[in-house]
Amino acid sequence: MAEEEEEQPEPTHKDIAYGPYDRNRLDFWKADTDSPAPLVVNIHGGGFLMGEKAAGPVLLKWAAERGIAVAAIAYRFSQDAIAPASFTDTARAIQFLRHKAGEWGVDPTRVATIGPSAGAGLGMWLAFRKDMAQPDSDDPVLRESTRLKCVIGNAAQSSYDPRFIRDLFPDFPVHKEPALAQLFDVDLDKLDDLPEEKYNLFEEMSPINFVTADAPPVMLNYGNALDREITDPGVGIHHARFGVPLKEKLDSVGGICEFNADGKLVEDGSEARSFTEFFEEYL
Prior knowledge:
Blueprint (H helix, E strand, L loop, with lengths): L12 E5 L7 E5 L7 E7 L13 H10 L2 E5 L11 H15 L1 H4 L1 E11 L1 H11 L21 E5 L7 H7 L9 H7 L11 H9 L13 E5 L10 H4 L6 H10 L4 E5 L2 E2 L9 H8 L1
Parallel strand pairs: 3-4, 3-5, 5-6, 6-7, 7-8
Antiparallel strand pairs: 1-2, 2-4, 8-9
């Protein structure tokens, strides 16, 4: 008889509103520790079009054993509100969790994110940007920091600028991914003839544009090798090639970037280490 799967723990705080919109919701698992705990925030993927807040059993089990708190957040879909809505929602979720740090037993200086695809991009966008705290705001949540201690991106897009993506994949129209068209509400068949404000929005939403010397440590994980043939847009939009310019930029400013493709560290071909090992070193 097969061994039963371990039951996933219920959140300590479930479906908590962190902002004014229906999808501004999060779940939180408190760490069983007397000291303020580090916090890992899971940000779901889904092309900004779908997905639900969740934290997997591996993350929750590891975090519980290490005295680490976990949160899982949702954000507005692009069919309801185009960029920057999902990005600013994510920033507010991080600020809300910091606002609750004292009450929920969190160390506000040790907050990290993990997520796939769109969730990876949202985490990296926060990680690289200057702090968006508004110290003089009437809203106490907005006074909190948005910066991260470290970030893990799985199948991450380093840029959401369709022009950048077109240049990165000149042999396949990855930049015409429908989720990108929806995210920005543009016709990507007219990429070179859009209003200037759309180009500004592309640039504002692209994590790679904000990399500086104080960027936190980053782990990039891709399930495919750098030489994987692109046979459809789904392969292309999650391709390891997205990691190359980001790794180069982080290296150029002295940043820390573990770039893994197909289970191997791209730098030397050695076995990629686990997300838990990365967090244990940098969080």
